[in-house]
Recover the amino acids of this structure.
């Protein structure tokens, strides 16, 4: 019976060691499981954010194309109206007698010089 008791003690010791190993394993896997859940939530958030970013980029691209086309249409309309206005002015000028026709002057569209002082440190680089 001595041998049987010894084997029973060895089995109990082994069971205790296995139980402790299982507890240790569970304790070490809990943080990993929590980290896994946190990562899954972050991945879901990033996927959702990615979808929102794609929608925003699409909307911004549409707005950009729309504004470019609007600018082109406005510029074309402005040029057409300006050409029409110039033609009307020429026609009115032709109806005047030659001595009353004003001379056409070139306009200066340059930017006037300002009187701001520039510090020497900026001027010298």
């Amino acid at each position: 019976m001595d041998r049987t008791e010894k084997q029973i003690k060895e089995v109990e010791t082994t069971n205790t060691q296995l139980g402790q190993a299982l507890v240790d394993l569970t304790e070490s896997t809990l943080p990993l499981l929590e980290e896994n859940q946190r990562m899954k939530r972050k991945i879901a958030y990033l996927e959702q954010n990615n979808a929102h970013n794609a929608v925003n980029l699409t909307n911004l691209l549409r707005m950009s194309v729309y504004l470019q086309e609007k600018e082109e249409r406005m510029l074309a309309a402005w040029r057409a109206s300006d050409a029409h206005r110039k033609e009307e002015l020429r026609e009115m000028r032709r109806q005047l007698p030659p001595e009353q026709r004003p001379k056409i002057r070139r306009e200066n569209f340059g930017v006037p010089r300002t009187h701001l002082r520039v510090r020497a440190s900026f001027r010298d680089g």
